[in-house]
Structure formats: C-alpha cells, structure tokens
Write a structure and sequence with these properties.
two-stranded antiparallel ribbon, 3-stranded mixed beta sheet, 5 strands, alpha+beta, flat
C-alpha cells in the first residue's frame, strides 16, 4: 500500500510570509480599506472584495450589499501612495496607476444565505 498525503503518519506545515510592500500585502491593504470604508458608513454592509495588482495597475473586484458609497479609485490611490508607491521610479505610482473597479451588488442567493445562516437563527430567528 502506498502512502499518500491523507494516509501519511506526519504532516508538514508550511506557510508563506511576505514583507511590507509585497503585492500580496498591497492587495490585502486595499481590500481592507474598501471593507473599512463601507462599514464606516454602513455597519450592516456585507463585503466580498478581492484585489489584484500588477506594475502600474490595480483591479478591485467583488460583491457588496450596502447603502454606502465609496470612491474606489480615490481610495485605491490613497492606499497605494500611503504604502510608499508614489513615484514611477519605484515601479508603481499611486497617483498615475490604472485602477479598475468591478464591484457589483451582492447576489440575492448569497444575501439569503447570510441572513438566515445558522448563527443568525440561533440568535432568535425561528426560520
């Protein structure tokens, strides 16, 4: 019998660690800023936001359910500049980078799943 990952008697734990300014960290900070901006205006807002970056370009995409308005372009530029990317000499300039926002309304199916989730029902909802 061969040993597979699932039948192995030991496991190897690995994790990725990246430093400040790494594209993964930039993406996390931008997505977090979108979430924070929405929750600041709408504490009941729901946000599923992902960010991707490539030299000189940021794409923010996802689905939200909120009454808040957030200027994604302005927010992205502020976060990128605050991180320290404020000159094309560094390979990325928050003031001139391309920003694409593909944020849509959250699917009613997802909203329904969140609104009537087990955790929600246990707090008094009898559905």
């Amino acid at each position: 019998m061969s040993t597979t990952f699932m039948t192995s008697p030991s496991l190897l734990f690995t994790s990725e660690s990246v430093t400040e300014g790494h594209p993964d960290k930039m993406c996390d900070q931008i997505s977090d800023a979108v979430l924070d901006a929405i929750l600041e205006q709408d504490p009941m807002g729901r946000v599923a936001c992902e960010t991707a970056v490539k030299t000189g370009y940021v794409m923010v995409l996802g689905e939200v359910s909120t009454t808040a308005f957030v200027n994604i372009d302005e927010l992205v530029r502020r976060v990128v500049t605050e991180i320290g990317y404020d000159s094309s000499d560094t390979g990325f300039d928050g003031t001139t980078c391309g920003v694409m926002s593909a944020i849509a309304s959250q699917s009613p199916d997802i909203a329904q799943g969140v609104d009537v989730a087990l955790e929600y029902r246990k707090n008094g909802d009898s559905e």
